[in-house]
Amino acid sequence: MNDLNLDYSLLIPEYILGALAILIIAVDLMMPNVRKQMLPWITLGGLALAFVVSLLYLDTTDNFAGLIYIDDYTTFFR
After folding, report:
1. Average pLDDT over residues 50-54
2. What global pTM score does this model have?
């Protein structure tokens, strides 16, 4: 009866983007104005990391509890 696939590793790119958003907000609030030139670079690095991790899911066909399907089409739009 309990045949749900709760493979949380399928959602790693989304976790990275969520953590990146929290990091950007924290750095923006905590750092002085002089250091705010780092924000675009932190954002670019985080987005590049999420992109590379998302590419690792090419040729993967799986789902998360039947709600989110991971395939090449999903990977393209991540």
Report:
1. 91
2. 0.79
